[in-house]
Design brief:
7 strands, Rossmann fold, 212 residues
Length: 212
């Protein structure tokens, strides 16, 4: 078994993936590599980088035992992280990918088709318009290196349809919340990504804090 095969096998075993899920992740990686130059999807293009920095990092959410959700939205989905890996891992959830760049929207739709992902849609609305004009039954918004937290927190405005949903943000070890962000910070979960220490930061309306 060569180094690339070992990387994939370790990933498959870590998350106990089914044969269908293995096939979907492998195809997803190939689509990323195939379309990356024309669309500029990611600077990380080797199998090792894709598995470690995209797939494993996205699935860090699955390592939190008490997190439950039925419909997630990936804000600024880009190439589909963390939304598509989470959809592969949790095939029964609904997924909304929010992305405004046309070429990336087309790529995401191709991935959805080729991986045969059900209950998955792409919204090409910008974030503020999405908050104003949609009313999906989303219970968890995910953001991984997309918009600033200050912009994401708009979802908790009293007039917003999504004010009672939760937000999870992929943050570095050294990230520190400012005074406004602290008001919405519900909890944090730390995890290790090879040599990197990272964390998932959960935000909610302050009225929900008693439900922690």
């Amino acid at each position: 078994m060569d180094r690339t095969d070992q990387i994939w096998q370790s990933f498959f075993e870590q998350f106990r993936l089914s044969e269908k899920q293995k096939t979907q992740f492998l195809l997803y990686a190939r689509l990323l590599q195939m379309h990356n130059q024309e669309i500029n999807l990611t600077t990380l293009t080797t199998d090792q980088e894709i598995v470690r920095d995209h797939f494993q990092d996205s699935l860090a959410l699955s390592l939190i035992s008490d997190i439950t959700f039925k419909h997630i939205a990936d804000v600024g989905a880009g190439a589909g992280f963390p939304g598509i890996p989470l959809k592969i891992f949790y095939p029964d959830i609904q997924l909304t990918l929010i992305e405004v760049i046309g070429k990336k929207v087309n790529f995401l739709n191709q991935v959805i088709t080729e991986l045969n992902l059900t209950q998955t849609i792409v919204s090409d609305l910008d974030w503020r318009t999405f908050l104003r004009k949609t009313s999906y039954d989303i219970d968890l918004f995910c953001a991984r290196a997309s918009l600033p937290i200050s912009e994401l927190l708009r979802m908790f405005k009293p007039s917003c349809f999504y004010k009672n949903a939760r937000l999870v943000y992929w943050a570095s070890q050294h990230w520190q919340p400012n005074s406004v962000e602290k008001e919405y910070l519900l909890t944090e979960d730390f995890y290790q990504l090879n040599a990197k220490k990272r964390r998932l930061v959960f935000f909610a309306p302050p009225d929900d804090f008693e439900k922690k």
